[in-house]
Amino acid sequence: MAVERLFTPRSGTVLTGWTVLGVLWLIIGGLSLAASVQSIYVRVFRLKPFGLRGLLAQVGWLCGLIFFLVATTSLGALLTGTVAGQVCYGLVATVILALFLWVGVRVLTIGRMSWRDSWPTALFTTIGLTGLGVVSRLAFSASIVANERSYGGIGVVFTILSWLIGFGVVLIGGVIVGTWYLDTELSVAGILRKFHIGRRTGRDQARKS
Questions:
Q1: Furthest C-alpha separation in the chain
Q2: Non-local CB neighbours of 111 within 8 Å, separated by 6+ positions
Q3: How many Å separate Cα 71 from the centre of its chain?
Q4: Residues contacting residue 41 through CB under 8 Å, at least 6 positions apart
Q5: pLDDT of residue 183
Q6: Could you tell me which of 202, 165, 26, 49 has the C-alpha nearest to residue 112?
Q7: What is the mean pLDDT of residues 192-201?
Q8: Above pLDDT 70, what percent of the chain?
Q9: pLDDT of amino acid 149
Q10: How far apart are CA 167 and CA 162, in angstroms?
Q11: DSSP characters for the chain?
């Protein structure tokens, strides 16, 4: 309700539906987001600039983002009526998010990153965004209401900006951690194997002592 009041005109009438200006802003904002994400990938993965092909990749990524938002919103309307449905929706949405990010890395890098090399970035970004979503669900609603009461509309803007900053940190952090994972040539199986060997060695030493 606080967010709705922020964007409601003084006349009190809220217009719904699509307008030419609204679609234009959606395209411009979406392409700006796609360009920012692509720029992060280019810098962290040390790729050469893409030129005009990069713009085509941004358009494809934006179409995928819109499809992802429509799909998850539709699933949310169907599944979140019960607690079990909410848990199921959370799991399904997380899987869809991971797949979108995985394909998104390939699209924005125009295939210069292989599927295998793209997966760690998608995985760690999904983990970060899931954590941000949990924190948002637990804290951001109360923060929006409290800031709206204390500072008015600008307080709501502060909360939204803090979420956007957190989103940017998670996005960049996911790419950096994913690249570090590739550079160190780690694997989940290898980590579990080392952990198992370490526990077995510890038990053997404890028996000998």
A1: 81
A2: none
A3: 15
A4: 47, 105, 108, 109, 113, 121, 175
A5: 84
A6: 49
A7: 62
A8: 79
A9: 80
A10: 9
A11: -HHHHHHS-TT-PPP-S--HHHHHHHHHHHHHHHHHHHHHHHHHTTPPP-THHHHHHHHHHHHHHHHHHHHHHHHHHHHTTSHHHHHHHHHHHHHHHHHHHHHHHHHHTTT-S-HHHHHHHHHHHHHHHHHHHHHIIIIIHHHHHHHHHHHTHHHHHHHHHHHHHHHHHHHHHHHHHHHHHHHTT--HHHHHHHHHHHHHHHHHHHHH-
d(CA 113, CA 27): 26
Neighbouring residues of 151: CB distance < 8 A, sequence distance ≥ 6:
158
The full length of the chain comes to: 209
Which residue type is seen at 145?
A: V
- In 10 A of CB 89, how many CB atoms? 18
The label of the residue with tokens 């600039």 reads 49
Tell me the one-letter amino acid at 16: T
- Identity (one letter) of the amino acid at 153? G
Alpha-carbon distance 165 to 174, whole Å?
14
Report yes or no: 44 and 175 within 8 Å, Cβ to Cβ.
yes
